[in-house]
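Slide 14.
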Amino acid sequence: MDGMDNPGTRLRSVSGSPHTRLLGLGSALPERVVSNHDLAAVLDTSDEWIRTRVGIVNRRFAGPETSVADLAVEAGGKALADAGVDPSMMDTVIVATCTMPAPIPNAAAQVADRIGIRASGAFDLNAACAGFCYALNTASDLVRSGSAGHVLVIGAEKLTDWVNPSDRNTAIIFGDGAGAAVVGPSHEPRIGPVVWGSAGDRVSTVGIWDRAYIEQDGLSVYRWATETAAPVAARAVERAGLRLSDIDALVPHQANLRIVDSIAKQLKAEGARPDLVVADDIAESGNTSSASIPLALDHMRAAGRIAAGDVLLLVGFGAGLSYAAQVVICP
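Slide 15: predicted structure.
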């Protein structure tokens, strides 16, 4: 006889907040700024070539003394301070990353301990450049289900540990950094439903093939993103019950400025506002994979390009190939 047949056996069900919201943001970048001119001195490239093809001017490189966890701790601590939430209120820490030096131990448990979040659930999530959006949706679902009250979500990468410094196809693109957000309960929906998926046939577009360095088929990534990312983003707006004209800012993964511009152009053609604010954080931060969206959010808000209450459309896509999009309200 199982529990369904025994009226004396009853499991308690829990439920959480009906809705969720972003409560705070934070970010961290290494101090070392590496310009296009710095790279041109050691690679067969130029400032003009890099700006024209990917839109990057500068990126940040962390030194050997700085780890993925170090960057995550700094960004996570700032997000908690911005949210005004004490570490004791946090139930779960999720670190989205694809650049930990080893899969064990995970970054999240280290981050929780160093920030002062005791005995919380802690796990890493790897969806590469879509990682933050995947983690954000997971956090929102945890709060809505009652499995967590507040969740710290961090995208953190140290890509310079995995990039071949002599390969101009990748060395000019990637940088290091971390961005974070605190997710908590809300009386009204302020994190929309996710639209996510995968395209396993594109697995060869980006990967670490020789267990040492990242390789990328940039043209395949460009073609996929320019053809697919905008429709995915539009579906996320529809699922949130909004129209494209309701969106104040577009914050896609900062893979390539040409890709970002293409997504924005397509969405405007479908009804997004002509004055839609579009993230261009790649110019100064480079491609930071799962950190790129939260980094851009924090930097845009600090610069006054977005403000509390603005409707933001997030779109992540990257190696796997994995993608995700959702609408959120700026904290």
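Speaker note: The first helix runs from residue 36 to 40.
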